[in-house]
Amino acid sequence: MEMSDGNELIRIVNIENKGRAIVSSRDLKAGEVILKESPLLLYSAIPLDAAAAAANYCAHCFRIISHKAVPCPNCSPPSLFCSSKCQSQSSSSSHTAFVCQSLAHLRSPDSPLRRHDQDRHIQAWFLISAYNLALISPPHFQILLSLQGEPTIDETSLLLHSITSDACRRHSPIPPPSVELTAALLAKDKLNAFGLMEPLDEDRERSVRAYGIYPKASFFNHDCLPNACRFDYVDSAANGNTDIVVRVIHDLAGGREVCLSYFPVNVKYSERQARLMDDYGFICDCDRCRVEASWSDDETMEEDHDSMEEGTCDDDDFPHSYFFVKYMCSGENCGGTLAPLPPGSSSDNNNNTKTMECNVCGRLEVDEEDN
Ligand SMILES: C[S@@+](CC[C@H](N)C(=O)[O-])C[C@H]1O[C@@H](n2cnc3c(N)ncnc32)[C@H](O)[C@@H]1O
């Protein structure tokens, strides 16, 4: 696996009980970008019935639409684009005739999808995007199929199969998918999709604007004390605004597994274990979980974080408190992780200071180095 500049920074190995994993190919410096990857596919996180009318972002590049929207001339209610360039690019990629007709079909007042909740709408949107990938790029569709996730044929997959394969039958030039294929795709989505987040608004819970599948980033396993974190810059004007960027949080020796946390690091032990089992199907046995397994439910990381700052925390009780002091964003209700800016970047990392960037609210904090 190669970084964009051609340096091999990470590679994929198999680790017992974890499957494929990413390890560092050499010593890595705090803040170093180890992966910048474009999505294999992207799909909206707004329910299909509301999407066309309510969306204030472009259906192709997912940036906020700041000028007059350009509507798709073929679907009703129309998908909206931020420019005629995005609209024209989408017609051979994200918004082909198949997607256009299928979305119009699913949004129509008599669509059976209308009786179902938001989660089903978003899954239906994912399936249409995945079937579209099979049409426009079979090799990329095969990459999607190679990701982790075993099919489960249950009520949800049967429902979504019946709704979306009907759209395929009517609008796709290739035969409709089997129910097994639909169920397999849903499993890939569940385990591998990354949310591209709306900017943090302190008055509202942070929401997801779109989901993306990034095949290389999908090989990162979870650790409750991650050594890397991922950033997205969806409203950036630069090219690659929907790319995922992964940076290491602190210096890392070559040959070490590089892990992300699949959710904010300040989630307590019992909830972390429940989410990892329900959503990802495994029991986490990381260093932090081994320590926290013996804690009572009302003993929280925040209490230890506070006592660490007051100097009253016993390191034996909470050997990981250093992580929370140094790498957790102090912004209210943020819960983000801090990683240094990449070595050599302009506002960064002189002498004994590092500029840390939060991967949720984007705040920059100066960290006085302790070495
Ligand atoms: C996004 S995939 C990560 C890559 C995956 N290992 C593979 O082989 O493709 C998520 C899945 O990896 C496995 N996994 C991730 N972190 C793990 C961990 N800390 N312990 C055990 N399994 C883990 C689980 O099976 C999980 O559903």
TrEMBL record:
<dbReference type="InterPro" id="IPR046341">
    <property type="entry name" value="SET_dom_sf"/>
</dbReference>
<dbReference type="InterPro" id="IPR001214">
    <property type="entry name" value="SET_dom"/>
</dbReference>
<dbReference type="InterPro" id="IPR044238">
    <property type="entry name" value="ASHR2-like"/>
</dbReference>
<dbReference type="Pfam" id="PF00856">
    <property type="entry name" value="SET"/>
</dbReference>
<protein>
    <recommendedName>
        <fullName>SET domain-containing protein</fullName>
    </recommendedName>
</protein>
<feature type="domain" description="SET">
    <location>
        <begin position="8"/>
        <end position="263"/>
    </location>
</feature>
